[in-house]
Amino acid sequence: MAALAFKFDDWDAAPATAACEMPLRSGAGLGERRFTAWRGRSGRRYVASVFTITDEHALGFTDAVLLAVSSDRRIIAARDSGPFGVEAALGRWRRAVALAGASEIHVHLLAEDGMTRRAALLDLMPEV
């Protein structure tokens, strides 16, 4: 009987020391990237919408995980948008991450409550 060879998907790899972007294959042929996915240190997958750092819509979501992403595909900072989407605080955050080198904001909307958003933040946040 021949031995079976198994090829593990990127998502099945051992837990990483830092979150890494794993672009969605279904969007690979599109000229504009609207969605992407990140793999947290735990190996869990987080799908996110992609916005430029200057796009006002990125900060308009409530109860979302916001990821500030640099042009070299690193998460610079992450935060919960909060239940009210406080514009002044989010605007200050966007200016700070832009100065730190962020070129995009990725918005993860699939965390259903505060506990799952907190878990996603801890999984995706860059280690200091």
Unreliable runs: 1-14
* Number of separate strands: 6
In whole angstroms, how far apart are the ends?
51 Å
> What's the number of helices?
2
The assembly state of the depicted protein chains is single chain
State mean pLDDT (0 to 100 scale).
83
In spatial order, strands of the major sheet run: 1-2-3-6-4-5
The computed structural class is alpha+beta
Topology pattern, helix = H, strand = E: EEEEEHEH
Computed Rg: 16 Å
Strand content: 25-35%
Draw up the topology in text.
Blueprint: E1 20-21, E2 35-39, E3 45-52, E4 65-70, E5 75-80, H1 87-99, E6 102-108, H2 114-124
Antiparallel strand pairs: 1-2, 2-3, 3-6, 4-5, 4-6
Q: What can you see in these coordinates?
A:
There is one protein chain. A six-stranded antiparallel β-sheet has the order 1-2-3-6-4-5. The radius of gyration is 16 Å and the shape is globular. The protein has one domain (18-25, 32-124). Helices cover 19% and strands 27% of the residues. By secondary structure, it is α+β, with helices and mostly antiparallel strands. The N and C termini lie far apart (51 Å). The longest helix is centred in the last third of the chain and has 13 residues, at 87-99. It is built from two helices and six strands. Residues 1-14 have low confidence and may be disordered.
